[in-house]
Amino acid sequence: MAAKAGRSVPLGVLLMKEQTSEKIEDPDILYGQANQSKKGEDFTLLKAECQRVPGDGVTTFSVFALFDGHNGSAAAIYSKENLLNNILNAIPSNLNRDEWLAALPRALVAGFIKTDKDFQTKARSSGTTVTFVIIDGWVVTVASVGDSRCILESAEGSIYCLSADHRLDVNEEEVERITASGGEVGRLNVVGGAEIGPLRVWPGGLCLSRSIGDMDVGEFIVPVPYVKQIKVSSTGGRLIISSDGVWDALTFEMVCNGCRGLSADAAASQIVKDAVHGKGLRDDTTCIVVDMLPPEKLTPTVPPPKKQGMGVFKNMFRRKSSESSLHSDRDCLPESDLVEEIFEEGSASLAQRLEADYPIRNMFKLFVCAVCQVEMKPGEGISVHADDSSEPGKLRPWDGPFLCQSCQEKKEAMEGKKTSTDSISRKSSGSE
Question: Which ranges are annotated Basic and acidic residues under compositional bias (predicted)?
Fold first, then answer.
């Protein structure tokens, strides 16, 4: 995924709008989940009231996450138990709300990588997709690896995709990254040399390019998440987070149409029911529905009927007014329906994801590893830009943030710069 830095609306600008206009109260959060189990490898995390500042009930945010495991449940369970803490530990203390939100995208990257790195000692063959959603006021931040998805339906009925699909079949950029890092991508070989099924990474046969775990496949299967941060209109909206058991059977539009007007609990159950009815229970099928409602409006609004010929799926978000390519899309939407994009980045490069300029340059302490937060002696840290040649002359190897030796080795392995002990050979069975 290409970065959209420089084109999105700065977080400070959005928050300033709130401060200079009539105060907008935080939304009411209602949620529900449903599941039909085939393998018992799907797990969820639902925490409606977390605290940015321990003991301060005003500084609350919500977390909703889905972990779709494969080759056993170990990676999904470990991620459920440890990922949130690893993310929060990567955010400096004593930040105000807008600084905390600005720090989230990089903290999510650090938390995902630390969780994956720590899990390496637990199991080699288990892995998990992750779709991790943090809601703070009207700001929604989504981090994802794998093929579980998160979408937003606005109160007016427009649909926005907030996650990436890391299946190799639909992501050519990821295929190129893996092959450049030393991986082999191809379909399953059968007798006679015929190839069948989806694209897979070998060894291991995984259909995904990003996950937590999956050490048996190779470290070019990276845990670096795609991250999107948006500000939802004060008219509210509905988030739908589902495993591939739903998306393999239903389109985004079918999911939204089938549950519109239902409570969050009933909507989640209806989505799972529709998915299983469509293709049968072939996989664990899990759905989380989160309604963000204006205060005191405790039932979801049924959007008005769409005008003939007007599409409901919106790939584009409102950004700066100078973004001429968005004019036609913006003109057909009411002002209240515009979802404002704050941040988007999908690169697998740590030099890009932990860069020093956005959004607060001094986020990383000089003598603390930017990923695992271990303290280092002066001179021990290795800059994430030490071997980055993407922008020669702009970044210097003594510029931070810095990694400890262990996290530097992890970075090199993900980039294919460290020789793996596993040989690349085509296997006769797949992982996912």
Answer: 410-420
Whether the Cβ atoms of residue 333 and residue 155 lie closer than 8 Å to each other: no
Same domain as 149, residue 242: yes
Going by their DSSP bridges, the two strands 313-314 and 159-161 should be labelled as parallel
- Residue 169, token pair as written in the block: 């079949």
* DSSP states along 182-216: T-EEEEEE-TTS-EEEEEEEETTTBSBSB-EE-TT
Q: Give me the phi and psi of 245, to 5 degrees please.
A: -60, -30
Question: Does one domain contain both 324 and 381?
Answer: no
Pair 279, 402 in one domain: no
In a domain, residue 5? The reply is: no
Contacts of 237 (CB under 8 A, 6+ apart): 152, 153, 154, 155, 291, 292, 339
Greatest alpha-carbon span in the chain: 70
Report if residue 430 sits inside a domain: no
Q: Do 256 and 325 reside in the same domain of the chain?
A: yes
Same domain, 348 and 375: no
Quick check: is 323 in a domain? yes
The total number of structural domains that make up the chain: 3
Locus of tokens 């860069």: 355
How far apart are the C-alpha atoms of 116 and 79, rounded to whole Å? 8
Higher pLDDT, 213 or 363: 213
Q: With contact defined as beta carbons under 8 Å apart, do 249 and 275 qualify?
A: yes
Say how far apart CA 412 and CA 246 lie, in whole Å: 35
CA dihedral (77, 200, 255, 212) in degrees, to 10, reads: 20
pLDDT for residue 311: 40
Rounded Cα gap, residues 198 and 100, in angstroms: 40
Q: Is residue 46 part of a domain?
A: yes
Query: For position 56, which CATH number holds?
Result: 3.60.40.10
Domain that holds residue 184: 167-207
Identify each DSSP E strand in 71-169 by its residue range.
127-136, 139-145, 149-154, 159-161
Please determine, for residue 101, whether its predicted confidence score (pLDDT) is greater than 70: yes
Residue in this structure with the two tokens 């100078």, named with its chain if needed: 322
pTM higher than 0.70 for the full model? yes
* Last residue in a domain, options 292, 325, 353: 353
d(CA 245, CA 68): 10
Give 110-165 pLDDT, tens digit per residue. Answer: 999 999 999 988 877 899 999 999 999 999 999 999 999 999 999 888 999 999 99
Mean pLDDT score of the chain, rounded to an integer? Answer: 81
**Position of tokens 């664990």?**
284
